[in-house]
Amino acid sequence: MVEAIVAAMLLVMVALGVLKGLDTAQQSSGREKARSTAAALTEQDQERLRSFRAVDLANYDETRTITVNNVEYTVQSQVDWIRDSTGGTQSCNNSATQADYMRITSTTTSNLVNTPIAPITQSSLVAPPVGAFGTNQGTLGIQVNGRDGTGKEDVSVTITGPTTVTNPTNSAGCAIFAYVPVGAYTATVDTNGWVDKGGNQKTSVGATVSNGTVNVKNLDYDEAASVDGVFDTETLGGATVPATTTQLSAANGGVPTGPFAPFAGERVWDPAGSGALGTISATGLYPFADGYNLYGGGCPGADPTKNDPDYFTTLGTNAVVDVDPGMASPAAKVRLPSIDLRVLYNGAALAATYQLTTRIVATQTSVGCTTNPEKFTFAAPSIDLNGWMLQPALPFGSYSVCVQSLIPGSGTTTKKKSITVNNFYHRGIKPPDAASPVVDLNSGTTSGTC
User: Fold this and answer.
1) Concatenated DSSP letters for 264-310?
2) Per-residue pLDDT tens for 243-270?
3) Which of 97, 175, 211, 232 could anchor a disulfide with 142, C-beta 3.0 to 4.6 Å?
């Protein structure tokens, strides 16, 4: 009985091995057939491209899907310009003459061909016949460089003007638009997840095509980075606690003014309608090699280096961020100094009845912050039983602080008073020689609200 069971198991194992071998052989045969088909399609595409007129072949780039025996094949056709003097792909180096040859490349892929067999690629050269291109034509080169100054390959570039053409950048980072009509053009890149130095995904540069020459324009463009800024402050007692604010800035001298950078050297994030936040995400950052300095607020006057040039190399090192292309950096701690305002009446804290009506509005007045200044509103009750401001953290800078409240003798009439406060200190607690600002509502008030 045992011998029969063992014999049966051995028979099953042998049968499974034979079937596995047949299945592997069948898969191998299928891959080889697919490879042969891909090779044939690649050769056919080469013949197809060689049949084109030179003027139609220039700047050609197309991807097609072809189905053979229920298998889909992707055939990519691409044309690069080649210089006779070097035999290499034409770069975006300025040149008085245009390229001499066109290199036509056909690449065929499929699900079967890609794994584990590489795509099938064929290339050949085409020499445009004399007179193939007309007069009043030139070549435009758009050089797309990453943060390290090297060319970025396979970035789609579109030129619009007397004609509209889209080409990818070659291995040198250059998109060549050869033998296009002379005139003024706009070259545009718009790649998802990529940005220019100002944080713009879609960015353009003006260019001119001159007769018989190569004109070149450069674009700085790379994969976007990101980082979260997490706000905190230091209390009068010396404790570090979470804080909130409405805007986050990232400073780097290479940032130009633009839609996301209202001031040169400063990107700003202002999550509309979100109010004060404990964390603001800085997205769409150009990955400058020297990174960014983060701070709360959205104008130059909120930059702590305006009062302390060494801030980011001493007390603010936590807010110095390194960024890499396409990567999210670790969250950074961004310190907001505490204004530590105290509201009193005749030198003493307001009675609880009046404290419940106390409202505070702080408006940025720093240099560079007076156009559409940030305004921070702290609803009543905004002070504790001893008159201290409940949420004292504000971005660095100078402020006009207005306090409104009902006070003894005012009945139902709200009184207000404003003072100027410089919120420059690195820590929440003031140094010994700097007293916390006080608003005493016993004198100097006027009727109304802040």
Assistant:
1) TTEEEE--TT--SBSEEEEEEE---TT-EEEEESSSGGG-GGGT-TT
2) 999 999 999 999 999 999 999 999 999 9
3) 175
